[in-house]
Structure formats: C-alpha cells, structure tokens
Amino acid sequence: MPNFNALIDKLFYNKSGQIVVSCVFGLALALIFNRTCKDGCIVYNAPHIEDVNNKIFKIEDNCYKYTTKVVKCNDHPLSSYDYNSKPENILK
Q1: Backbone dihedral angles phi then psi of residue 51, each to the nearest 5 degrees
Q2: Other residues' Cβ atoms within 10 Å of the Cβ of residue 11
Q3: Taking the CA atoms of the chain, what radius of gyration do you get in angstroms?
Q4: Which of 31, 36, 43, 49 has the smallest number of Cβ neighbours within 10 A?
Q5: Cα separation of 46 and 74, whole Å?
Q6: What's residue 83's pLDDT?
Q7: Which of 72, 73, 55 is CA-nearest to residue 64?
Q8: What is the pTM of this model?
Q9: Could you write out the DSSP letters of every residue in 55-92?
Q10: Which residues contact 90 (CB under 8 A, 6 or more apart)?
Q11: CA–CA dist 24, 11 (Å, integer)
C-alpha cells in the first residue's frame, strides 16, 4: 500500500489526478448550490403599491378595487415582484 504522501502527489501533481480532483470538487459545488425544491415550488411576490392602489381587478366573475393599508410586518413578508411584468387581469 503506497504511503499517504505518494497518494497526494499522484492526485494533485499528476495530470489524470488533477482531472479526478477537479471533477470531485465540481460535483461537490454542484450539490451545494442545487435547488431543494424540484416541482410545485411556489414563490409569492407582492406588487408595488402604485400598480394596485385604487385599481380595479377582475378575478373570476367578481371585480375588486384594492386600497393600501400600512400594517406591521409578519414573520414572512412577501418580496417585491418583477418590474417588467404587469398584472394581466387589470381593468383599464
């Protein structure tokens, strides 16, 4: 059985050893940054106040007019939504 120093030399200073070590480190990084949610992920995003305040929205057969009200934040406040997307169901 080769000694530990010889094994380290083969892994880090040999061309094929460097490839093996790079693959192992690459797989480890991929596993660290892998998403935990695969299917059915739900991301809640809150719209900006200007986009919904005093506007009328149609949801199914009912129309709703939203007004804003300042409240205390709960444990999980919603994050802001994408600036580039506008609600599709707004009545103009």
Answers
A1: -80, -20
A2: 14
A3: 27
A4: 36
A5: 14
A6: 53
A7: 55
A8: 0.35
A9: -EEEETTEEEE---------SSPPEE--TT---TTEE-
A10: 55, 56, 57
A11: 11
